[in-house]
UniProtKB/TrEMBL annotation, chains A, B:
GO terms for molecular function: DNA binding. It comes from the Bacteria. Residues 11-107 form the HTH hxlR-type domain. This is HxlR family transcriptional regulator. It comes from Labedaea rhizosphaerae. Keywords: DNA-binding, Transcription, Transcription regulation.
Amino acid sequence: MQRTNFGGMACSIARTLDVIGEPWSPLILRDVWVGLSRFEQLQADLGISRKVLTERLHHLVETGVLERRPYDNRPRYEYVLTEMGTELVDMLMVMTAWGDKWLAGTAGPPVLYRHHACGEISHVELICSHCGKPMHARDIGPLPGPGAAATA
Amino acid sequence: MQRTNFGGMACSIARTLDVIGEPWSPLILRDVWVGLSRFEQLQADLGISRKVLTERLHHLVETGVLERRPYDNRPRYEYVLTEMGTELVDMLMVMTAWGDKWLAGTAGPPVLYRHHACGEISHVELICSHCGKPMHARDIGPLPGPGAAATA
DNA sequence: TCTCAAGGTCTCTTAAAGGAACTTAGAAGG
DNA sequence: CCTTCTAAGTTCCTTTAAGAGACCTTGAGA
């Protein structure tokens, strides 16, 4: 399987996919987010091939989503979210909300989230950064931006 | 390449990936969202293999994200977003905001979005559905939900 | 009847994922 | 000082999905 590289496209969605679009990457991000930070933990939790896990972790470190750091005098490392990676979790939260709504069935969501600020179980909503009103697919229109011609 | 199926995991992120996690699927969703709705248009715009495009469109129709409908007496079809698919665009909006912030470089974002409600160019922000305050990775904690044991 | 175009299908090649065995570095025990 | 143990990979082989491009099918219109 050859796979087309999305990173060169003049599209932030394609570029983001170039970072976390590969199979397993979002689930690795999720695991690191909830506190599974070591190779063996990730491998055991996900059931992912060790080879692929190695490749994904390298890629996520290279792109700046994760940081690899030693936690012992022995050659032992753990992976932690960078600021860039922490903000990428926003995407996971939206995926969670969508999956909870459309794919959970009668059993209901497998995981709930409590918002520390209000103490309630809730989910994420999208608003406009400018006016604060809801912002969804039908509420916006695209127009060319400054980086429109970029190809690298 | 065998690929592990994520749909059976008790995780809404994994289940969502089962729907749009395959390579190209988010870009197909983006194109349909911005008005490219026909097979030839999608193929030409993305440069995707016709075989893979066929597979992805079938999968997106089967899972309920897209609807395939005739637009002519001849055997011609277009793909349109269902309500489920329209809500999935929320994920693309977050990916766009993240890519604009972290990957656009000095050239700036390739595409800007105007919010119809306020007329301003803006991006999406995440808030709590309950209290309306910002909600991000560090602001929430997971706990088991009703569907926690589901395996199908 | 011939041509044209949309929307696919078919076939072949290449490369990525799965799986499992093997390697390496350092600490700790005997 | 030699062996054992464990985390963190690496290597090798098989299977299967993506890429590329040729080919096919249906109905409309000249």
